[in-house]
Design a protein that fits this description.
single chain; 187 residues; mainly beta; Tumour Suppressor Smad4; six-stranded antiparallel beta sheet; four-stranded antiparallel beta sheet; 2 helices
């Protein structure tokens, strides 16, 4: 069987891989799927244009991308693939953009995040470092660590260092003193 590579980071994948261990890009076998960072408007437009029906709730405004297929989810499960929304958390970025976090997948917050939705939401904020903080969902907790940012990372009002700190969801993460994001469980 041919070696598979992730289209997002060119990392090596096994044939049964659903999630690239390097960057978090979702795949099924050798079929790449949209990244979980697909902005809600783009996911809704793609779902409408590719012949798939909209998830329960209409146009998808305010929903989150499915962590398996990338389509917009507003209810408790994706209408397209059936993935329950309760298997993760939602990161709410400045401007209201939402990003689905999957269990155990490290996501870097910053102006140059690999995740398009995060980079777009934070890219113009000069108080946010290029690589500011990293977050990993661990069940009903989130693990947060600073990535040697210029202005510091704050978790529920307390500064965190480069050693990961865990807190029960929901949490507010400060990227410096003037920018914050929230992470809430989906249940």
């Amino acid at each position: 069987m041919a070696e598979l590579t992730c289209p997002a980071c060119n990392g090596t994948l096994t044939p049964d891989t659903m999630l690239c261990p390097n960057c978090g890009h979702f795949m099924i076998g050798d079929v790449p799927l949209p990244a979980i960072a697909t902005p809600p408007a783009a996911a809704s437009a793609r779902a409408a244009s590719d012949g798939h029906h909209q998830p329960e709730g209409g146009t998808g405004a305010g929903g989150v991308p499915c962590t398996t297929c990338g389509r917009q989810v507003n209810g408790t499960a994706c209408d397209h693939c059936g993935t329950p929304v309760g298997d993760g958390a939602v990161l709410e970025l400045p401007g209201g953009e939402r990003f689905a976090l999957a269990e155990g997948v490290e996501v870097v917050l910053g102006r140059e995040s690999r995740e398009q939705a995060i980079a777009a939401a934070l890219g113009s904020l000069d108080t946010v470092s290029r690589r500011h903080a990293r977050v990993t969902l661990r069940g009903t907790e989130v693990e947060v660590a600073d990535v040697e940012s210029t202005n510091g990372t704050w978790l529920d009002g307390r500064r965190v260092g480069t050693h990961p700190v865990r807190r029960q969801l929901p949490v507010r993460i400060g990227l410096g003193q003037s920018v914050s994001v929230e992470i809430r469980g989906t249940r």
